Amino acid sequence: MSLLLALVLGLSVYGVFHGIRMYRADAKLPGDLALALEVGASRTSAVGSGLDRLGMRYAPAVLGAMGPKRVDALRRRLDMAGNPGGMTVDRYAARRAVYGVLGVLAAFSMLLRGQFLVAIAALAFGLVWTDVVIRAAIRRRRADIERTLPDFLDVLAVVVSAGLGFRQALERVAEKYEGPWSDEVRITLRQMDMGVSRRDAFDQLRRRNDSEQVSMFVTALQQGEELGAPIVDTLIQIATDMRRTDAQHARREAAKAVPKSTLVVTLVMLPATMILIVMSFYYGSGVDLGDVLGG
Fold first, then answer.
1. What 3 state SS string does the chain have?
2. Is the Cα dihedral 134, 135, 138, 139 positive or negative?
3. Are residues 77 and 138 in contact, defined by beta-carbon separation less than 8 angstroms?
4. Which of 83, 100, 147, 151 could form a Cys-Cys staple with 41, CB 3.0–4.6 A?
5. Rounded distance, CA 201 to CA 185, Å?
6. Tens digits of per-residue pLDDT, 242-292?
7. Rounded distance, CA 38 to CA 255, Å?
8. Around Cβ 237, how many Cβ atoms within 10 Å?
């Protein structure tokens, strides 16, 4: 049983950390426009990990059980996560199949040994671990983009004010940055090279990223273009608004932390301090507790 649990844990760790690439700086989009619009993600390799190959034959069954709507939602979540480890829809289904089978086997083995809680944990692990990895990747990637975007826009405004066109400036600045945001900009530029209009390409950029700041950037850029506002002023204003939003978010998080810290003090530190004070008085007074209680 221990060997089976070790196998489940080992395969999960291998699937998470083997070949993980959170950034898509050297992403190569396929030449087919339809694929480029659908994926918007890196293609790290044509062949996945051993875990992917093991479950690939069962991937169609998993996708069929999910249904078209859930598959479409999965494809969007993978785009928002940046396709960690080169994960595609088929690879996701393959991993779900492998983890699910291993989780069921481990749960059945634990039930035979009477370990009901461990069986539930093993089954839950096998069924949701792949989704947990995707959600964690989405959070990390969104935080990285929102941290990078204001500085990126400041530099872009300087380059545009120096006389370079917006598209050329966007490409030039993206070359100097590394990370998920510069990768997204490169994907958008590649789509524009393939004939997609600038508005549609930036709409695709907004849909690929679950970030309020990215949505703010695209909306302000499109509105500025429609109204004929100077692009430099628009970029500076967007960056200023983003920093103001970040400051407000930090204040909200700090306000939420105060009740949590108060709860920790009340439940942990205060009782421990009271016990320490009482025991100090007791040992310092030299009183016999048995005499006090009448023992």
1. CHHHHHHHHHHHHHHHHCCCCCCCCCCCCCCCHHHHHHHCCCCCCCCCCHHHHHHHHHHHHHHHHHCHHHHHHHHHHHHHHCCHHHCCHHHHHHHHHHHHHHHHHHHHHHHHCCCHHHHHHHHHHHHHHHHHHHHHHHHHHHHHHHHHHHHHHHHHHHHHHCCCCHHHHHHHHHHHCCCHHHHHHHHHHHHHHCCCCHHHHHHHHHHHCCCHHHHHHHHHHHHHHHHCCCHHHHHHHHHHHHHHHHHHHHHHHHHHHHHHHHHHHHHHHHHHHHHHHHHHHHHHHCCCHHHHHCC
2. negative
3. yes
4. 83
5. 10
6. 888 777 777 877 777 777 777 777 777 777 788 888 777 777 766 665 655
7. 40
8. 15
Compute the distance between CA of residue 247 and CA of residue 139 in angstroms, rounded to an integer.
19
| Alpha carbon separation from 204 to 39, 158, 166, 238 (Å, rounded) | 10, 26, 18, 19
pLDDT band at 4; cut points 50, 70, 90: very low
* Per-residue model confidence as pLDDT tens digits over 121-158: 888 888 888 889 899 989 888 888 888 888 888 888 88
Contact present, 95 and 15 (Cβ < 8 Å): yes
Cβ–Cβ contacts within 10 Å for residue 8, how many? 20
Residue type, 269: M
Distance CA 129, CA 99 (A): 8
Token match 């035979």: residue? Answer: 112
**What are 232-245's pLDDT values in tens digits?**
888 888 888 888 87
Q: Which residues contact 199 (CB under 8 A, 6 or more apart)?
A: 222, 225
Structure tokens at 116: 């009901």
The residue behind tokens 């205060």 is 270
Q: Which tokens belong to 192?
A: 């524009």
